[in-house]
Task: structure prediction
Amino acid sequence: MGEKIINLVDQRLAGTPPVIPADAPPPSGRLLDRRGRRLRDLRISVTDRCNFRCVYCMPKTVFGRDFQFIPHEQLLTLEEIARVARIFVAHGVNKIRLTGGEPLLRRNIEGLVAMLAQIPGIELTLTTNGSLLPKKAQALKDAGLQRVTVSLDSLDDAVFRAMNDVDFPVAKVLEGIEAAAAAGLTPVKVNMVVKRGTNDASIVPMARHFKGSGHIVRFIEFMDVGTSNGWKLDEVVPSAEVVRMIDAEMPLEPVEPNYSGEVAERWRYRDGTGEIGVISSVTQAFCSTCTRMRMSTEGKLYTCLFASEGHDLRALLRSGRSDEEIAAAIGLVWNNRNDRYSEIRTAETAALKKVEMSYIGG
Ligand code: SAM
Ligand code: SF4
Ligand code: SF4
Result:
């Protein structure tokens, strides 16, 4: 096969693409990036397609009828995904999240879950819009999935239908959440992206509805991911405001994080009826503890949600490289990582070319 130059390091960081040295040692033990952060989480996008057109993620003006999604042969196969996952876990990853696009649209997603569930010692979760959970929750659980996060932006049917922009009703997502809970994919987390002027009136009703249910609602600040969602800073509702609004009706107190680097800041109801989380990537950046690598549907590695370029792992997978060589490539990408987008975000950076959320997953 000979030595082939493969673009492994973000052009913005390195200028010229490095060659994977034939004798690059596979990483052993913990991998650290240039800011001393460990590689611990892998988010795998299994499809770039979705049956929703959420206005903040896949606006119809961009993701319309003519939009060209990635052709099937360019997607990593389920076996390729499982192989990469095993290599990542051998080098320190202990948490894998399947995402997309809508991951439950990927054919035989249960088969992938079953393969990943064989890897010892990992936490295996999935983020979904919930539309297919009534059909698939039990099969996912049986295959070895541990938990799900379900996105739901409002309990007000008109607001939710307008936000998903395909007229999908709240009741069906609630059915999906209950199917997940009944299957034991618990605790179910419920993600709500908050956009000022769109669904901020839904914050308190959402907290009220799930209080005492065992499900954990997480309020996410609207982010400037990609280049197509028309993000404006004044549409971001700071998490501090979300906490104040809920606390005024249902008193809250802070909870210690489960582990260092946890993305959601946790709060619990003082009356002991559960907890909520807030994810403040705009008003309180958490880059300094970010341990996440993302892999796109076609096998590109992204070291940041706001990156513009990925590193092509598929070329390596399909050119007969050994697990050690793949591991060396992953090590090189992580060791060169210097991202901290949320810490340096401005109106100017928001306008930079960035990969779309539906392509690399949330
Ligand atoms: N389709 C699945 C879903 O919606 O749960 C998984 C993929 S989706 C890209 C993952 C998460 O990203 C969802 O919870 C979604 O609400 C969130 N998300 C998408 N665009 C966002 C944005 N602009 N700001 C904040 N969160 C966003
Ligand atoms: Fe689809 Fe999820 Fe994006 Fe909504 S947030 S358009 S459900 S990928
Ligand atoms: Fe991690 Fe990038 Fe988000 Fe910072 S902006 S927390 S580096 S994904």
About this structure: The CA atoms of residues 29 and 91 lie 6 Å apart. The longest strand covers residues 123-128. Residues 1-20 have pLDDT under 50 and may be disordered. Residues 50, 56-57, 99-100, 102, 127-129, 151, 191, 193, 220, 222-223, 225, 229, 357-358, 361-362 surround S-adenosylmethionine (ligand 1) (CB under 6 Å).
